[in-house]
């Protein structure tokens, strides 16, 4: 199986060092609980899944808006108002929201990524 640890490190600004993938997943667990505490723990799991899927769509739309601005493919008024520093934050939002949705649906993201990376590496004969 592929070792995803070196491929999936993210800046961990609170510690001033790199966060491991396991630390990211633990942070997602904490964030999941914070969201449940703040917005209520849906007794209906389908509603939580639906809400997180819609939230992912919202975050993806915001990332798409940033990509369009990055490539100057927006109306001039939008480009004039664009701050230009949100692209990395929107990528992070999409990743975090995806991980929260996966947690809600019981997907083992680490295993899923390892299997997918192995499949791609086998298909294209990648040697790491």
UniProtKB/TrEMBL annotation:
What InterPro entries does the annotation carry?
MazG-like_dom, YpjD/YvdC
**NTP pyrophosphohydrolase MazG-like domain residues:** 55-124
Q: Record's Pfam families? A: MazG (PF03819)
Protein's name in the database: NTP pyrophosphohydrolase MazG-like domain-containing protein
